[in-house]
Amino acid sequence: MKVKEICEKLGLTVYVEGNGDQEVERGVVGDLLSFIMRTAPDGAVWVTIQNHVNVAAVAVLKDITFVILASGREPLQELIDSCSKENITLASSQLDAFKLCGKLYELGLNK
Question: What predicted TM-score, i.e. pTM, was given to this entire model?
Fold first, then answer.
């Protein structure tokens, strides 16, 4: 499913559009950056509550082009700027991480 379709279907607040035509088939959830660096599949959507510039750095390392902040988190300007520079879609959801991941799974991101 395309990033822009996920954003629309989940009613996400988009802070950085990135590549909305990027296809996403799987996801990862976590807030410990070292865990994400070890376990995230390349090209996944990443659900987190972390809200700092290092999120963009880890996303670049793992070729993650779509980050969703859960629980209504609003990104800091430095994260917005880094995601813009790296062409990473950055969005937020009012849903907590558990419910958000359930919705992503229902949309077919279950590989």
Answer: 0.96
